[in-house]
Amino acid sequence: MGNEALVTRLRDLLGKGAVLTDSDVTASYARDMMPLAPSGTPLAVVLPANAAEVQAVVKACAEAKVPIVPRGAGSGLSGAANAIDGCVTLSMTKLNEIVEIDAGNRLAVVQPGVVNLDFRNAVEKHGLFYPPDPSSYDWCTIGGNLSTNAGGLCCVKYGVTTDSVLGLEVVLADGSLLKTGRRTVKGVAGYDLARLFVGSEGTLGVITQATVQLKPLPQAPATLVAGFSTTEAAGEAVARVVREGLVPSLLEIMDASSIKASEAYLKTDLGAGSNCQALLLGQSDAGGEVARRELAALEQICVDCGADLAYTTEDLEEGRMLLQARRVVLTALETYGLWLTDDVCVPRTRIAELIRGCEKISSEVGLRIAVVGHAGDGNMHPTIVYQPDDPSEFERAQRAFDEILEVGLSLGGTVTGEHGVGKIKREWLAREIGPVGLRVHQQIKRALDPENLFNPGSMFSMT
To answer: In 125-246, which ranges are continuous DSSP H helix?
Structure first.
């Protein structure tokens, strides 16, 4: 089957309006938010409306031996959703139904095109809470979160996406529909295939539905802010929090560069002082006296570690204002140029070393690097700022990106904590997992996708 014949068949299966071939339109589906990742030109973009149509598309592409690249909203930061030349881009945004909310069993069944924030708002009406909250939660989709195993600010207490997944429906390479997982709290029947597909970046199958577990709606959070004159003191405070067994609902860190950018953008003073080198933001959503005890313990740790500022509040609006300083960092950095955000996770006792390493890299490449991250789980996001019209700066930004990953690995870390591998960290994944780990990945891929048609080139090479 030639390309024209495939497009005709897809239109017969889905309807003309669900198969897009205009180059100006398909270009908008060609890549995600990561400027370093390569992308190609898709043959067509298809928008199936249900699982049966996804199956039909997969079967047609399999017959034509045309690769398929699944895609959500395009908010990713690894190039995992980027098209390759001649592929069919499979946009899942029309599968946007919340199929079921079962409040009695604290679970929900949801399609991949549902926006994360819309889902969170829907379950909140039942007194429930869906924890994963990536920074793009107001426009990213559940399917993309599943494919990259997304995290967010509350991972320290609630974990990443896979920790909320009970079961999946997945279209396999032959077009069959796999139903895996369960609706029960416990279940150990067979391999845990649901966890295999979560984080596989569309390389093993296309997720068409997920059963996820929900939590009781947390209490309104109480908030801590603590400022430190040295990065090492802030790092020691994080390590003390871990050692003493505290599990706040949120524990974030900002370095001096990110603090200054946020203050300038918000036109506010966070009260940390001009000598502040690191800011910790913590929250407890336990409510009442439990939250007060948690924050008091956090505050005492910060003071003991030399914090120049340690302040707690139960005022919801004040807490939101403080957290806003963390959430707007990337937007604030846009006032200086384009940003390139990295994603590296290190042992929590080595956060300060990573930040110092980024400061050294910043000095060497001559570019601003601001570090923010989820201190509670060690997942840091060093963000490099460069001028897009300066090829030299872009090249130096690329160099800094890789050198940050090198530092992360040298500290016993991993090259991605939540953004995924995609098309920018394939060589780094191979370095991290080694030849035996890479071989096992390739064997699993061959078993489930023998023709290598699902998102080829993402995560790792098959050669």
So the answer is: 142-148, 155-158, 193-197, 231-243
Determine the Cα–Cα distance for residues 435 and 408; give it in Å rounded to an integer: 20
Contact (CB, 8 A) for 207 and 103: no
Please check whether the domain covering 98-216 is classified as CATH 3.30.1120.10: no
**Helices (H) then strands (E): counts for the chain:** 15, 19
Q: Residues 291-334: pLDDT tens digits? A: 999 999 999 999 999 999 999 999 999 999 999 999 899 999 99
Instruction: Please provide the size of the chain in residues.
Output: 463
Q: Give the domain ranges of the chain.
A: 3-91, 98-216, 222-410, 435-463
Coil, helix or strand at residue 277: coil
By percentage, how much of the chain surpasses pLDDT 90?
A: 92
Which structure tokens are listed for 26? 């398909």
**Arch. (CATH architecture) of 3-91:** 2-Layer Sandwich (3.30)
Q: Is the dihedral of CA 202, 208, 213, 219 positive or negative?
A: positive
Kindly state the tokens that stand for 319: 């807490």
DSSP string, 122-148: HHHTTTEE---B-TTTTT-BHHHHHHH
pLDDT at 275: 87
CATH code of domain 222-410: 3.40.462.10
Could you give the count of Cα atoms lying within 13 Å of 372 in the half-sphere of its Cβ? Answer: 26
* Residue 93 in this model has a pLDDT that exceeds 90: yes
Can you give the pTM of this predicted structure?
0.93
pLDDT at position 207 is: 98
Q: Taking phi first (over 0 means left), then psi (-120 to 50 degrees means alpha), and beta for anything else, what does residue 181 get?
A: left
Here the tokens at position 112 are: 């991949």
Tell me whether strands 309-313 and 222-228 are parallel, antiparallel or unpaired: antiparallel
Radius of gyration for the alpha carbons in the chain, expressed in angstroms and rounded: 23
Q: Which token pair is 63?
A: 């017959």
The owner of tokens 């003191």 is 233
